[in-house]
Amino acid sequence: MMSQNAPAIGIHEMMRFAPPSDAAVPLHAVFAEDLAAWRATLPDTAQHWLTATGFAAQAGQVALVPGADGALAMAVVGMGGPQDRARLRFVLGGAVARLPALTFSLATDLPPDLREAEVLGWLLAAYRFTRFRPVTPQEIARLVAPEGIDAPRLEVMARAEALIRDLINTPASHLGPEELEGAALAVAEPFGAQLRVIRGEDLLTQNFPLIHAVGRAATRAPRLLDMTWGATGPQITLVGKGVCFDTGGLNLKPGASMGLMKKDMGGAAHVLGLAQMIMALNWPVRLRVLIPAVENAVAGNAMRPGDILIARNGLSVEVNNTDAEGRLVLADALSLADEAAPDLLVCMATLTGAARVALGGDLAPFFTDDVGLAAALMQAGGQMHDPVWQMPFHAPYEALIEPGIADLDNAPAGGMGGAITAALFLRRFVAQTPRFVHFDVYGWQASAAAARPKGGLGQGVRALLAAIPDVLDADKQG
């Protein structure tokens, strides 16, 4: 049953295209290098207005040009020059907040390599977290779908991003393991997907000891969510970290580090968003989504530093830091996924601060041994305005995750190479699956940017959406 406290994850009406309308205001997207030639095509009054308002087609600059009757005749958005476009993304989306809440139609034929990405940016810019402060769609500028784009696909991507952002933005008081289960059910039901849930002490009887160990101290029972969809085609399994709040356990986080821990279920949000896109686009695949949903809490029965746990696949793990709990719950889920040896296994998690030190919050690192998948992801990340970067499963660091009294150490001493050692730890639980990729995402926009308001953020999911079909097609051709 879906809890009454589960987040509202329905379609954001403002993140859809507006229906065609004769009343839509023309919107011109003007590149700085084309400004002079474009201005020359305008009536003298419009040229004078642009001169008087200082419009220079700078990236994100907006001009509202009135007609002879004083009503808005057209809007103009500056797209900047080539250097701007090399370092900025979603320039058009960044202008949405500066436009009046009217319906616009794009009067510029954008280059093919920018067209869908910039229009998607408009949809993403319309996102608002409305759970606790409602916003009506009428307060946001709308866009009629331009010709030559796959509008339904873009809306699917926008809805998935809204889902990811909503889930991450929802505080732990309203999103615990039970509510995350409800959110997964809400994603599954419209597509006829099946959701099986293993809760509480049943995790022990069904051999998920690490998930149970991490979540047992919380008042809200831990669980494993197992969603399946599709009967034929390649099998894709998505595993997402669902730590709904992370206190650090007995290795308690300081307050400053605990402030954003509502987002520690960001991996779960990401795989639910990706799954929703796959099902909405009706891919011919067998899809499975596994989410260990827990809280890492403090109580008398909490796991302790120095404890040794036996994972689902039989490996022993020394718990040298209870705040390195994400890799523990993922280990059991990855072991279950690996038992079926899917064609592709994707793991997504807000896992390490080390990944942020290495690449910052905007660039999502991924780890894979599959050369073709890595190349496809790097290419797709650029095309989809969803930047990702490959990091190595560096084999010499394997010794760092071997404590001596157990097979594995969940928190190697020294702290160096933390994102890599965490990825190597996870890979130990994937023995039979030939194609595995792990994403260590941040899932958060620290300050507002174009089409990315401050708060929860999807990373890597659009790159995966674009890359996976190419990789699976290559398998068929091979």
TrEMBL record:
**Boundaries of each Cytosol aminopeptidase domain copy?**
321-328
Biological process GO annotation list? proteolysis
Q: What PROSITE patterns does the annotation carry?
A: CYTOSOL_AP (PS00631)
- Entry keywords, A to Z: Aminopeptidase, Hydrolase, Manganese, Protease
Q: Which domain of life is it from?
A: Bacteria
Q: Where is the signal peptide?
A: none
Name of the protein in its database record: Leucyl aminopeptidase
Native species: Roseicitreum antarcticum
